[in-house]
Amino acid sequence: MSLSFVQHRIQAEARARKLAQERSGSTEVRIADIYKYFPFRLFGLSRAALSDLAQLEFEAELELCRVNPEMLEQYLDMKRGGFRTGFISDTYWSSDQLAQLLRSCSPGLTWDFLYASCDHGSGKSEALFEAYLAGQGIDAASSFHVGDNHNADIKGAQRHGIRPRYYPQASAALASRFQRETSIFELLCPDQPSRLDCGARTLRRAVTARSAEHSPAFNLGVTVLGPVMAAFDAFIEARRAALARDGARVAIGFLGRDGLLPHRVWQANHGESGAYVEINRRVSLVGSADTLEPLSELLSRVVKIDAATFVDIVKVQPPAVMKFFAQYPDGIASGRELADALPDLMDRREITDIAAGVRARLLTYLRAQIRDFDDCTDLILVDLGYSASVQKSLRRIFDHEGIRIRLHGAYLLTLDDAFDDIADDDTAEGLISDRIVTPHVKRMLIRNVALLEQLCCSAEGSARDYRGGEVLREGDQRPAAQLALAAEIQSGTLAYVSRARELAPRYALQPDADPAVAARWAAAVLGRLLLLPEDDELVLLGSIKHDVNLGTQALAPLLDASFVNDCIVARGLAAACTAPAPPMWLAGSLAALSPSHAYLYTLFGANRLPANVFGETPCGTLRVGLFRRDSQASLETVTVYHTGLGDLRLRIPLSHRMAVATIALPLAKLTRDGLLHGITIQYGESAAKAAESTNLTAVAEGRLIDAGLERRGRQFRAGTEDGMLLIPVDGFEDDVAIYTVALTALDHDRILALEHSDGNRVPSATLTWRSAGTATATNGN
Fold first, then answer.
1. Which helix (H) or strand (E) holds 484?
2. How many Å apart are CA 266 and CA 548, to the nearest integer?
3. Which helix (H) or strand (E) holds 715?
4. What are the backbone dihedrals phi and psi of residue 615, each rounded to the nearest 5 degrees, phi first?
5. Model-level pTM?
6. What is the spatial distance between Cα 663 and Cα 686, in angstroms, rounded to a whole number?
7. Nearest residue to 627 (alpha-carbon basis) of 669, 649, 658
């Protein structure tokens, strides 16, 4: 209802201004003129409600408007300097209403003149400045005007010889970012109004306007990460205060490594009351183990592992495990293989002895880091998220040692369906929980959260053990430039937090007053960065590597646009949207292809991308030539599909025993003029297995041979209808290889899927072209 009301109010104003322009040559109207065109009956009202609606809107204006302290100070300085000072405004509020609004924002404010455009039937871009000069009887050259609209205020004043000063409310870049955030908000929180945010965007504009220009990394911290971390900090404080009100003695531990930035924000706002504790999933899980099952679960998530890494995790060298690794090439096995074999390689007593040692060293470390650890009744664990694995492990460790401290997880993002096994006296809650966004959306955010982890992370390696109350860390493989970039972004974040703490009271803003609203906007701001990054952000952040952090030295790329493009070529857009990591930043990889790819991915994650629209549909067949290594040749018929993006895709399955050396693809039969997006190969023990494979190989463009084609980059043109593309086929060991070709036809409208009147698809038909712009399906060759 509220969204419909707002949109009808906007439409009514547009109609009123259009008709005013037609009647008088000016678009100036009063608030009552606007509501004349409002659909009263739709909302169960009579036209007698017109004055009530106008008055209610004015009351909302009084409630929402804030004085700009910098402008107020400049205004008062001018008054103290003896200048005649007043206001000129383009507004549908009358002069009396404008006066009331000004004094509501700043009680006791006085002025020498006040001009409202609707009272004069002309705006600042028209004749309002002329009316002011004539009415005040002053020379334009001695007049000075401050305004925030470049066209109306600056150009309008200059046309009349008035000296202007431009005071922009928000940069074009920040305004564009707000627009994207609003779009994301309406996708992620579709049932909530996106217009009211308790002043969060007003505060961000004020902070940004008062922040000196710094590096792009620093500005990213100020404009994006700062507001998210400020909301998270308020969430943590609310949880602490609630426990303290119930009489609890509360300690707070920020879990390293990516809990560093929230800890720095906490220190900036609350002093030294929180501890930074370096505990990761690996160490806590080993310390909590009383069977081999937790260790097996951990190892199953590791792609590759060697003996040295295993020893680093468990601190011992079981002979049977060492023999296991010796069986593998270079001593490297998959984590899944090791996890499956582990019950036969280690005795339960070995892991319990290992766990006891880790527990003792970890508890000594906690007592050294957390002041009055043994006297606290409740410990808040702060982390980015997601399933409270460290909290659960720490609970088991505390239970083993008879420690009765209650644990409370405070997370930025949560997988809430993972919390059902939290101990009864413990709690876990996320700022961005499944009450804020849906589980589908949450999984999309977490699929791309590696970027946030790297930006929040400390510059040291991950904890591997403890000694004498101190942490022992792994070596850190991340490049120095990446660490410097993260440090600069964190500096910008802290600058925002400091300025926001200063400015919020001056503007009478409380962006965290409503926790649910703050959480929704935190989701939108963070979601915009992760899901709809801007080009300059891709340039800034695209080289970051993700530290896998499971005792390995592996760094995984955040961005890989080529892989995502190959995924789209081979399996379509929907399959690319579910591609496994790496790349770690899937949305960023799609955005590197185009902003629309990233937006479609966001729609997919919000469950708004229908498969029957963005999937693929058969639209005919094509006969391709297969030349074998023994010089024999054959023609095979393959199905041609059109995609939701209007492209064509065809798949050519080959078996190992066919011994094909070259595929002859008659591209000119599809289109004489087109774009070749790529050719990929998938392998498997069957056609179904190959089609599902995400292990893709792209055929290098330079290996393709043109026969009757001209190619420049991706674009190709066929001189005749016999133009072909020859694709070399390398030998392969798997049973099946699928060659997928994706292209866009440029010389005709899109091909329609063929259906009988009963709705069933027509059997495959060969595509031929009668002329450019015409596609015909026939049953012949």
1. helix 480-506
2. 27
3. strand 715-718
4. -85, -155
5. 0.90
6. 20
7. 658
